[in-house]
């Protein structure tokens, strides 16, 4: 795979966009109908989120090895995830919640005066760990009642995985003992097996699921030079993935590695590339839920499911475009920021956070 990967000509941007849209379709269906179609215990959105974590594992590990600096790595990760997340929280609390109140026959001010308040929604969730989903008991009659953003919970686990890469890089494991990463993935996979057998392993199933997916992606980058990308292997991997989905309640027990191979093949081996100038995947992911919740409080909730989803997707895409141009891209432009203090009459850099060749949330330009 290593000889196939071109940081400026690949399909990871397109894959992330497709995965984000799959999440929108999945959540749009359940938020319109209240029904959640699953294969075993996995819905369409679950497959997509697994894919996000696989790609993130590969690209974030690559980023650390390029940067070779813990401080710069942390700075880049904060810039990528936090500004847009915080703006989303504020807009949900200050705009979406009052509109939801008006749509349900209450005063806009009730979002700020009735518990749990919109103000509390911001500060309770600002650290990425989502502990308050409700605002003032609004939207109680929606098919997915009371939850203002049911997508943000994955971001704390994404940050956990970032921290794991940072620690592994800081102690030189990523360069000098890379075998530790697949060994850790295998250990967590064994814990998943034990959990499936009903044994308490003291780690939540969602944490196990997404960290394993991330580590599989990380392993793929660390051993990229040993992974062949061929047509017959992707056919075998696709078949193994489909069998896992059909045969197992938790397809990941045998399907997470085939899923990773299929994603990475499409990301690196197609004869064309879909590198996007605007990375809307993050904005689509964080904004689609509140948009769909508002639509579900209107007469659109009675329209056909495809129309409901399409309406939400278009509105969310506009918000994602605004997020990219007004929040995400300006934040990422600060990657090379260097604090300076006047010294001996001159301003000299006291700390350095130089820019690297970007890679992560957009494999091309948004790391």
Automatic annotation (TrEMBL):
Domain Acyltransferase span(s) in chain numbering: 10-321
InterPro entries: Acyl_transf_3_dom, Acyltransferase_3
Top-level taxon: Bacteria
Bilayer-spanning residue ranges: 81-103, 152-172, 179-194, 206-224, 231-248, 254-272, 284-301, 307-327
Claim: Transmembrane is one of the keywords in the record: yes
Natural source organism: uncultured Friedmanniella sp
Protein name in the entry: Acyltransferase 3 domain-containing protein
UniProt entry keywords in alphabetical sequence: Membrane, Transmembrane, Transmembrane helix
GO molecular function: acyltransferase activity, transferring groups other than amino-acyl groups
Database matches in Pfam families: Acyl_transf_3
């Amino acid at each position: 795979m290593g000889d196939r990967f071109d940081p400026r000509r690949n399909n990871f941007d397109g894959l992330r966009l497709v995965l984000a849209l799959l999440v929108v379709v999945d959540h749009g269906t359940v938020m319109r109908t209240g029904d959640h179609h699953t294969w075993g215990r996995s819905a369409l959105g679950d497959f997509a989120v697994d894919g996000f974590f696989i790609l993130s594992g590969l690209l974030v590990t690559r980023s650390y090895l390029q940067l070779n600096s813990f401080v710069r790595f942390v700075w880049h990760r904060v810039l990528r995830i936090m500004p847009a997340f915080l703006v989303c929280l504020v807009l949900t609390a200050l705009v979406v919640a009052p509109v939801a109140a008006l749509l349900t026959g209450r005063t806009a001010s009730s979002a700020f005066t009735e518990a749990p308040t919109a103000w509390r929604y911001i500060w309770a969730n600002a650290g990425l760990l989502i502990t308050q989903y409700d605002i003032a008991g609004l939207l109680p009659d929606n098919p997915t009642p009371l939850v203002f953003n049911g997508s943000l919970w994955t971001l704390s686990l994404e940050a956990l995985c970032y921290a794991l890469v940072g620690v592994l890089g800081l102690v030189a494991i990523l360069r000098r003992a890379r075998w530790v990463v697949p060994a850790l993935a295998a250990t967590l996979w064994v814990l998943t097996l034990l959990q499936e057998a009903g044994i308490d392993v003291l780690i939540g199933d969602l944490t196990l699921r997404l960290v394993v997916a991330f580590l599989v992606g990380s392993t793929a980058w660390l051993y990229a030079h040993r992974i062949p990308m061929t047509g017959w292997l992707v056919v075998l991997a696709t078949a193994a993935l489909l069998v896992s989905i059909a045969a197992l309640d938790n397809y990941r027990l045998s399907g997470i590695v085939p899923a990773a191979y299929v994603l990475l093949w499409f990301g690196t081996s197609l004869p064309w590339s879909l590198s996007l100038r605007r990375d809307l995947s993050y904005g689509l992911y964080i904004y689609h839920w509140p948009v769909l919740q508002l639509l579900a409080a209107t007469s659109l909730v009675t329209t056909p499911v495809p129309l409901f989803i399409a309406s939400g997707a278009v509105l969310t895409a506009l918000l994602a475009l605004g997020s990219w141009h007004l929040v995400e891209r300006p934040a990422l432009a600060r990657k090379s920021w260097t604090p300076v203090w006047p010294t001996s009459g001159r301003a000299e850099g006291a700390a350095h956070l130089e820019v690297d060749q970007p890679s992560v949330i957009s494999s091309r330009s948004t790391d």
